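User: tokens in, sequence out, please.
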């Protein structure tokens, strides 16, 4: 019997689906973040695999765990050094479609301002109409969009933006063959790329090398007419530099879906930053929902179920982030 533990509220609600998908030969149990140390020790000591967003030192003996499966792309809540010695860390794919649709929606809304136009019209105002002398709103067509990070999500963004007649630039650690991209830049050339952009989309993983990848020089290069879209992780952008650039209008605007602070059991209504971004009119902000679609959920849990089956049969895992130190391919 292969024992799988769904650890934490982000995954516990799908435990019954996972049990049904895996069928005989598997047990799937849930473990709450708030469980006491004895409960965690008992559950994890007997587990073969753990599905979780979070792993940290102090979880007790989990020496039998051979798979730690994250149900998303980011592993920034996983303390890699604290993982069980025999455990391989995996994430999932399938977020590209939903996240890319979010980016397209936000860029179109930034250009056309339909939400504000409808709100004004519902309130009785025709002020945005050409019949009353309103200036035209901008088009996305003809804009230059820079994509920073060209993995699954970056490619999905490019694929969906290309039909809108935009010019696409990309910055990545390595150049990838893709005819939709007009220009490639290294991660050490970001200011040069951003100076040519109307919009910049961050789709790069948060690792030590990308922490504060976007700082004051890069934001200044994007400039007073530029818009930053962050669907990566908050700390990829220096928090203080971003606040100052937006507040002082050195940066034209930002669409922020990922943050610097998140709620927990003790502070369920925690603000997403130490700065009041919610007070800035040139910021659109959402609570980390860009990729949270029904399609994403279905695809990610199919990956999770498949890795649990591979755990049982000894086949190579999908989407490996870190192999167990003693792993032999």
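Assistant: Sequence out:
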């Amino acid at each position: 019997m292969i024992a799988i533990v769904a650890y934490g509220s982000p995954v516990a609600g799908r435990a019954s689906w996972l049990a049904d998908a895996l069928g005989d030969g598997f047990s799937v149990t849930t473990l709450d973040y708030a469980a006491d140390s004895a409960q965690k020790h008992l559950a994890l000591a007997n587990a073969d695999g753990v599905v979780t967003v979070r792993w940290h030192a102090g979880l007790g003996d989990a020496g039998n765990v051979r798979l730690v499966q994250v149900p998303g792309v980011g592993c920034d809540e996983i303390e890699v050094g604290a993982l069980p010695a025999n455990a391989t860390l995996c994430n999932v794919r399938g977020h590209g479609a939903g996240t890319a649709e979010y980016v397209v929606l936000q860029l179109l809304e930034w250009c056309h301002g339909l939400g504000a136009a409808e709100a004004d019209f519902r309130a009785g105002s025709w002020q945005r109409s050409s019949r009353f002398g309103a200036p035209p709103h901008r088009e996305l067509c003809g804009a230059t969009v820079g994509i920073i990070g060209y993995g699954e999500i970056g490619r999905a963004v490019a694929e969906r933006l290309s039909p809108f007649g935009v010019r696409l630039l990309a910055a990545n650690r390595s150049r990838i063959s893709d005819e939709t991209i007009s220009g490639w830049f290294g991660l050490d050339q970001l200011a040069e790329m951003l100076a040519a952009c109307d919009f910049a989309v961050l789709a790069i993983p948060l690792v030590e090398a990308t922490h504060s990848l976007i700082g004051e020089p890069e934001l200044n290069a994007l400039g007073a007419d530029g818009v930053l879209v962050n669907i990566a992780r908050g700390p990829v952008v220096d928090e203080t530099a971003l606040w100052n650039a937006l507040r002082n209008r050195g940066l034209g605007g930002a669409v922020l879906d990922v943050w610097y602070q998140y709620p927990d059991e003790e502070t369920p209504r925690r603000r997403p930053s130490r700065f009041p971004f919610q007070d800035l009119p040139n910021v659109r902000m959402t609570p980390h929902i860009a990729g949270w679609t029904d399609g994403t959920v279905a695809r990610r849990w199919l990956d999770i179920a498949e890795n649990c089956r591979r755990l049982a049969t000894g086949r190579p895992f999908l989407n490996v982030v870190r192999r167990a130190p003693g792993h032999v391919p």
